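Trying the structure run again after the queue cleared.
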Amino acid sequence: MTAIGSGTILTAFVLFCRIGACLMLMPGFASERVPVQMRLFLAIAVTLALAPLLIGKVAPGVPDDAPGTIARLVISETLLGGLIGLLGRFFFLALETLATAMALAVGLGSVLAAAIDDAELAPPLASFITLCATMLFFATDQHWEVLRALADSYAALPVSNGFGAQFGLVQLVDIASKTFFLTLRIASPFIIFGIVINLAIGLANKLTPQIPVYFISLPFVLAGGLFLLYFVSKQFLQIFMAGFAAWLATG
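Done. Tokens:
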């Protein structure tokens, strides 16, 4: 058997910095409903599972065990892992934002409740959509793609290169643009429905001001929005998961 030296332990700790920071922010893994201890043990388990494959790539980037070098590597790898996790989380943040807009469009925006995977209040429709997306994230094995992408990140972003602030900002801006365009495509039927139905209600209210058209039409607006959700939910979840899977595959 080969003895495990201090250099191997240090290299594994450097691996843990990137992997743990990524899983801390990656959707699904980073839910507040998952206890912190479980997330910590999961990050340790993933690090130990990937260590035999990655130690050979990471070890040359750990030249010595000087405190200054170790501190630089820890900070750099933590920022890189956090960047990767935040890029993935942007997809679900954009989906939650546009799902809230969808709830407003169909008349469900005024009803707030505790979110499934967050501590903030959100419309139940937005919580339902993000919960479905999170379940599909695991059901379609995208969590394994996250681990594959983490392993491949050491070839694209070597430890020796460090963290570049400009590179990180460019990536965040690009992914924000991409995710909001993607989720805008998903939410567009509901936004168009909301514009058309509110124009129709406003016109009817002007023609018959003595009748409270808004309160009479509200149940029909809700029914129309729920029927629209029933018919397009499969397609927009497929579009979202395809976009997320494409980002995991290509980076």
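The CA atoms of residues 95 and 183 lie 6 Å apart. Worth checking whether this holds up in the mutant runs.
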